[in-house]
Design a protein that fits this description.
238 residues; alpha/beta; five-stranded parallel sheet; five-stranded antiparallel sheet; 8 helices; 31% strand
Length: 238
């Protein structure tokens, strides 16, 4: 997922960038200090979601959101503002969410969930979606995604685990998340993606952190980031 932060205040942009990076769900983050700069950057590269301040000099965030409707494939808009009184107007311009400053990490993740639902997957061949290219004994092989239990980030690689084997992939965890999210996979941590179909138990350890047990992987416990707990429980129906 690619995001753009549009805010005339640099500290606000930096804070939101930090929170977005902490989610582990954003591949690329662009920044703009004005509506004009935001449009110029959209012409240079696609953004899936725009986090947009409302009160900005010259062109307001609300005006920019209205103008985005003229684009063929406009980004989803999430307003990020210190003012609550524009909420109704925001949804009239088809905003996907409305966050109040300072931004709460859980609310940010909820907004990203909505964005993920809104975004339509890019057209791909059947094989590229249903199987993942990996390296095994120096050979390229294709692993069916329904055999994958979980994926772990390992340096510049992703380590893919099935019930009885382990493979390396040069595809980043962020790109694997995008590819696999529609198939029941969930980014539970900066370093882990889990196939929810194979989650067999959820344990709360003494520090209050959740750990997942994965069917077919004996003795393996995967920690859940505190920022992802609410979204994970919702995905598991807890």
């Amino acid at each position: 997922m690619r995001a753009m932060i549009v805010d005339d205040e640099a500290p606000a942009r930096s804070e939101l960038r930090f929170l977005l990076e902490e989610t582990g769900r954003i591949d690329d983050i662009m920044e703009a200090s004005s509506a004009r700069e935001a449009v110029e950057k959209l012409m240079e590269g696609k953004a899936d979601v725009m986090f947009l301040d409302i009160q900005m000099p010259k062109t307001s965030g609300m005006q920019l959101a209205e103008a985005l409707h003229k684009l063929k494939n406009p980004p989803a808009v999430v307003f990020v503002t210190a003012y609550s009184e524009y909420a109704l107007e925001a949804f009239e311009v088809d905003a996907i969410d409305y966050l109040m400053k300072p931004v709460d990490p859980d609310r940010l993740n909820q907004a990203l969930d909505k964005v993920q639902t809104r975004i339509k997957p890019q057209p791909q061949s059947h094989s590229s979606v249903e199987r993942i290219p990996v390296v095994k004994s120096g050979r390229k092989v294709l692993v069916p995604i329904d055999q994958i239990r979980y994926i772990e980030a390992k340096d510049d690689y992703s380590c893919i685990y099935t019930d009885n084997d382990r493979f390396l992939s040069t595809i980043s965890l962020a790109k694997l998340e995008q590819k696999l999210a529609p198939h029941g996979f969930f980014r539970v941590h900066r370093g882990y993606i889990v196939n929810l179909e194979y989650v067999e138990d959820v344990e709360v350890i003494s520090s209050g952190i959740l750990q997942l047990g994965v069917n077919g992987i004996e003795g393996k416990k995967i920690s859940v980031s505190r920022r992802r707990v609410v979204a994970l429980k919702r995905a598991l129906g807890l």
